[in-house]
Design goal:
The chain has 276 residues and is of the alpha+beta class. It folds into two domains: 140 residues, Jelly Rolls; 107 residues, Winged helix-like DNA-binding domain superfamily/Winged helix DNA-binding domain (Arc Repressor Mutant, subunit A). The strands form three sheets. The chain has a four-stranded antiparallel β-sheet. Strands 3-7-5-6 form a four-stranded antiparallel β-sheet. It is globular, with a radius of gyration of 18 Å. The termini are far apart.
Length: 276
Amino acid sequence: MVHRQQTAIGTDAREFLVLPPVNEGSLIVNSTFHREHNPLIRKLESAIALTDDERQALLDLPLQLVAIKADQDIVRIGDRPSRCCLLLSGFACTYTMTGEGKRQIVNFHIPGDIPDLQSLHLRVLDNSVATIEPCTVGFITHQALRDLCRRYPRITEAFWRNTLVDAAIFRAWMTSIGQREAYDRIAHLLCELLVRLRAVGLAEDHTCDLPITQVEFGNALGITTVHVNRVFQAMRADGLIQTKGTRLTIPDWERLKEVGDFDPTYLHLEQEDATK
């Protein structure tokens, strides 16, 4: 197993994933998550106004809380899960693998995301979900989610909306990989991540924590690790970004959006403040 230490944005942490079973070294308890710190409610309320009954129903969802180390799979390709994973803290990613063992990251996940929500309807997973840093995950049984959706149709609609937004993010990434230069690809992704974090209250103005390494940026955007490193150096020199450890600050938001050709429409956020 490769252990990750906290690294600066755009630095190399690992080349390969070698992962133990999800329960190894993890703490498991049965619990609900407190209202003030419930990232699922924050995520849903970034798009719709929940009623008090709907909020309470989400708070009452039985969660199996698991503390998972960095660089571990939460679910794997080929799994037939009977539960979904709600990311409560930390960063994670969805990825696929080629037959030669090369990894393609297809989405980054932040607190409030349910990366494998499709497993409610698709029996076999066609992608894996892995932690990027130490994470807390709340596992929710499919039965509990189905019961929730039957009782609260608007929550069902919100979940469905989230899967559609995930598809929109995938389309935006494909456009970047196919049509933008490496510098512009990274600028676009940095804009997206900041807006998504701001929408759920995890960024301050244009500053956020971003524990993603250059290997992971490369795996997401089809860029070599060496090239990712050069782009980050150029962005710092150009005054587009400032980094300190895993902390990212964007001094000139409008300029970064212009460089990345970033239009947040595909994120379908109702909170206009998150995109400014």
